[in-house]
Each structure stands twice: as C-alpha cells, then as structure tokens.
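Lab meeting, action items carried over

1. Structure of the two-component assembly. Owner: GW. Status: complete.
Input record:
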Amino acid sequence: MADKPNFNGWSCPLPLRDYERIVIGHGGGGKLSAELVEHLFLPAFDVGVSEELRDSAVIDLGTAGLAESGGRLAFSTDSYVVRPLFFPGGSIGDLAINGTVNDVAMSGAQPIALSSGFILEEGLEMATLARVASDMGTAAKLAGVRVVTGDTKVVDAGQADGVYINTAGIGIIPEGVDIRPGRATPGDVVILSGPIGMHGVAVMSKREGLEFGTEIESDSAPLNGLVADMLAVSKDLHVLRDPTRGGVTASLCEIATTADVGIAYEEALLPIPAEVAGACAFLGLDAMSVANEGKLVAIVAPEDADAVLGAMQANAYGREACIIGKVVDAHHGVVVAKTTFGATRVVDLQLGEQLPRIC
Amino acid sequence: MKYLDEFNDPELAKKLFADIDRVTTKRWAIMEVCGGQTHAIIRNGIDQLLNDKIELIHGPGCPVCVTPLGGIDKALAIASLPDVIFCSFGDMIRVPGSNRDLFQVRSEGGDVRIVYSPLDAVKLAEENPDKEVVFFAIGFETTAPANAMSVHQAKQRGITNFSVLVSHVLVPPAIEAIVDAEDSRVDGFLAAGHVCSIMGTWQYGPLVDKHQVPIVVTGFEPLDVLEGIRRVVIQLEEGRAELENAYPRVVSEEGNVHAQTLVAEVFEVCDRMWRGIGEIPQSGWRLAPAYREFDAELRFDVGAIDSPESELCRSGEVLQGFIKPNECEAFGKECTPRKPLGATMVSSEGACAAYYQYRRLDGIEVEVSAGG
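Predicted assembly:
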C-alpha cells in the first residue's frame, strides 16, 4: 500500500512575491495586490509599512495652513501614457509626478498631496514597474510632495501598453494670488522659463529610433519651487501655463482666446536649443509646438517683469528665462509672431499631433 | 546651429532684399515649384517683405497635394482590408479621401502606421510574415530612390508580403505643363533643390531653351529662397533665360547617378493624374514590368473607385498659380485645415494650409519690441 499523502510539510511551490512579471492577480485586491503595495509602492514612495493604511488618505489642511491662506485649494489630475516608458532625461514615473505638480503650481499653489492610479498590463516586468515607482518617489521627494493614496488595476496582456499612470494633486493657493488665463492684459510681458522643445524631441527620438548625433534630454522637472520664488517677488502674477502637449504655441493661443487679447512674440527671442532646432528642421516640426515638461510661460504686468525675471533666473529651473513677447490690444484672440526677417505671421494651434513632413 | 543659422541671418537677408529691390524695374511673377519653399516663404514672411513688383506663385510641388483623390481612396480601401499593415509618410495620413482619411481608417480598426523610410515598411513585412505590408509610395523624384530601394530590397530578399501603392510625380513635365498653359503668368521658376539633388540639373536645360524661361535651382532655407529669387529677377531684367544652380552645396549637374540608375530600374515613366490639375503626359512613375508583382493596385482588388473632386475647391487653380489661396471663395469658410476640401489645405506644405496657418489676418500691423 502506498504512503498516504503528507500535507504537513507541503508549501505552495509558487513564492507569491517573486513573480518577475505582473499577473492578473496583482490587481485582484487579494494578497498579491497587498504585497505589491507593501513591497514595491510603499518603499518607492517612502511610506513606512508601519503607517496605517486605510481606504482614503486623510490630510490635515489645518496643519498645511489652509485657513491662513484664504481657504482656496488647487486640484488637478492628469493621465500619463508615454511610449517609451523610459527616455533620455526621464521616464513615465517622473512625468506623472512633475506633470501634476506643475499643473497644480500653475495656479500659484504649493502641492501638498498626490494620488497615483496605475493601470498595469499583464506581463509587465516587475523590475520595470519598480523602476517607474522609484522614479516617481524620487521626483516626489524633489518636488517636496507626498503620494498619499493610490490604486492598482491589471488588465489583460494587449489591453494596455505596459503601464498607464493617473495622478491627481491638491495644493493650497496663497492668499492674494489670482493666476488664470483670463488675467492676461494688454501691456503685459510674456516670459518663458527656458529652452523649449526638449521633452518632445527626446521622446520622439527614442520612439522613432532616430539618432541625432547628440542626445537631447527631456526637461522633465517640478516647477513648484520656481513658482514660489516668482510669487515671493510678486503676488500679482497674471497667468502661468506649463506648455506641455501642443507646446508654447498651444499655451499662448489658449491664453489669447480666453482673455480675448492679442499676443505677439519675436522669433529671434525664442530660446530654441540647437539640437532641438536641428531635429525639428530634420522632421519638419515646429519647436514652438513641441511638448515641454519642465517649462512655464508667465504673463506678468510690465512693472513686475524685471523682478519676476530676476527671481526666475536665480532658480535652477529658470536660469535661462527670457522675455519673448507681450500682450497687445490688437488682433484679439490671435497670436502673432514677428519673424527673424521682420515680417509677421499668425500662429495657430496644430489640428492634432504634428506630423513629420514628407520632404 | 550649423546649416540653419547661417541661412537664416537677418542681416544677410536685408542685403538680399535690398539687392532685389535695386535690380527690379518691372513686374515679374516667379513660381517656386516646391511646397517646402512655399512653406519657407510664408513662414518667414518673405513674400510680405519683397517689393510690390515681384509676385510669388506657389507651384504644384507638394506631393501630398497633387496625389489624386482616386489614389487616396484606393489607399483608404487597401488600408481597411484585414491583415494589411498600411504604411505612409506622416503628412499623408490626414489627407482626406472622398469621405474619410487614414486616421479614421485606423480608428475603425485598420492598421495604419507612420514610417520615416519605406525601408522600415520592408522590415515590418519581414517581421510580420502573416500580414500584407503596403507602403504608400508617393512623392517627387526626391522620395523615389528610397521607395525604389524598398521594392528592390524586397525582391532581392524574397519578401513577398510587401507591396507599394505608387503615385509618383515628376517635376520637369509639370513645369512644362505650366509654361505651356494658355494663360500662364509665370515668368521664371525656382526649381526644387532636393529634386535636383537626385536628378541633377541636366533635365532643365532643354526646358529653359525650349521655353526661354529662367530656371534657378534653389534651396529651402530662407536665404536660399531669397538668393533664388534674386537670380531669377536679374535674369528677367537682363532679358536672359538660363539655367542656374543657386544650391551648389547640395546639387550637381549630374545628380546622384546611383539613385537615378536604381530608379530607372524599378520604375518606368507613365502618364499621371495630378489632383486639381488633371492628367499630365509622361509626368509620373509606376513600377517597371520586372517589379510589377510588388504593385499593390494589382495585388488588392478594391473595385472601381470613382472619386469626384469637390466642386467648390479651386486647388487646381492655386496649384497652377491662377489664384492665391485666399482668393478662393471657400478659403477659411467651407475649407479649413479641420475640414479641408482639397489637399492644398491639408498638407503643411500645401499653399492653402500655409496661407491659413500664417496669413489669416493679412494686413495686420504688429509691433512687438518685446522689451527683452
């Protein structure tokens, strides 16, 4: 007679936490989900395991100084679907933090908390996810903001592209600060915080496998510190925008339309790095319509321009800030560029994505 | 930036404008053949800054614009087939056929991809042996060598699931058709530098002699264009009609002989429909008999395609220089980049799109002096 099976010494041959890839179960809300949070996300986001995890984060706005600052919150959300996940100068991880930090900062607010929602594709390498999460943690630390709540879902292989991230952020707007596109006023000065087009060109060069001789790095960066420095010299900033998709052109066009003012800039004043200009010439793209992830457009009263520009140039993320144009009481709702030859032309929004030209 | 800043220097531009002013005594109409030149002219406002006597006419040199509607409809039909990966240059994707564009085909489940080189499409075919990979081979002589190379390589490597939908057009027959037109107003031409970098300048001498019209081979940076204009004006004022090469840093008389040999092997000259203009004899290339097996039109039976052009659209007159884009009644009204009636409004190189994008507020005075 054969020996009876002995279950006493039996253990599951699959060590749950050692999956090298994401499986559907990681989004199932069971042990796999919990272990993913405990072993991957919490360490990356610098949250102690001893901290009590609940269904929602609780933020003490009293401690954060909400009442003293007039009681206004800025709240923003954005989803990140970048391909490739890693590119020169950044990754989807730091974009997901910086993008939302910057959106919140464009109201003049200092971000105090972020959420992060992950949609993971079954089969995603755990090491890749760990790298993304680690980039998020590093970026959050640099921006001085914490990721306080999150969620993870897993979809079948082929239903997503590796990892999608949604982040939302809240921040407190200091009293007396009223930054919005509608405040652009004729006479105001248009300031750009630094060289443009780097993020878009960096991603495109990787995505399309194009090599340009020199590597262009994304400018992905948190701008809340820069905005704080600007507000320190003038609370009366009129407009801030981070020119991401659609580039500076899209930001200026939206401001002109919203405020019903004209905006005029000089092409000769635009800070376009040589590598970006070269790549754009090569691909038939317009650098002004290429995405940035660490730049802002500021519109300020002329009397504040020098002080704000000085404060920007004193900050690492605004060192090359410069004036590119002004708001005018003409061609309402329309942006106009003065070309290097001295002619003028209308600057319009791209219809969709810029498409490389044939020849 | 080497090769960019030097050809965009405002001081040199001022000098060229002044030179042109000094030599101009009569009215002249000059056609820039290539869409890339149209783009440079409008983007930099060169036409605004030239003296009133010189009129620039924007020619039919945007390959996207002149691809006939029927050809686009065929592309859309093929791209919609199951198991087809349809590859195209970027700016062809948004060109509307009779009722949709390649973006819409993609949203409806078609596999449409943007490639930078037709050789990428060959690679795709190799990587996807269970799919048919079709490349939309359009363009002037500039894109022809790479397109020819893709077919040549596919044949050499025995890649049977690759084919091309060919709609190639040629510059010299188009110039000939334009000067031959009854009411032609063109006094001189800026020939397309990149076409000549492949084909050389030798094809243009006979045109100059036959029609007594100055042709200056011209580049694409703003100063290149100005220099081309200056040379045409000087010839016209002196009553000369000669072939000049103002783009010698790229163009030679013989051109790229290897490319010409390859193109001559893979393609043969044929009559070709030009969108908005009509058929121009001997103005296109199709696959030569030895390569016909790679012809997507023969490989895929998409039925007879009848594609009437918009009745409102006057892109043909724009392409031939009879009217300026903003003289068309539909310009900016029924026809915008969002809802283009003709391809000249779609391609970023198209004359109508260039006008719409950059010149909607013609005549506005802008004083910038940004204070910086």
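2. GW to write a short summary for the group page. Key points so far: Chain A has two domains: 21-48+70-172, 181-347. The domain at 181-347 of chain A is CATH 3.90.650.10 (Phosphoribosyl-aminoimidazole Synthetase; Chain A, domain 2).
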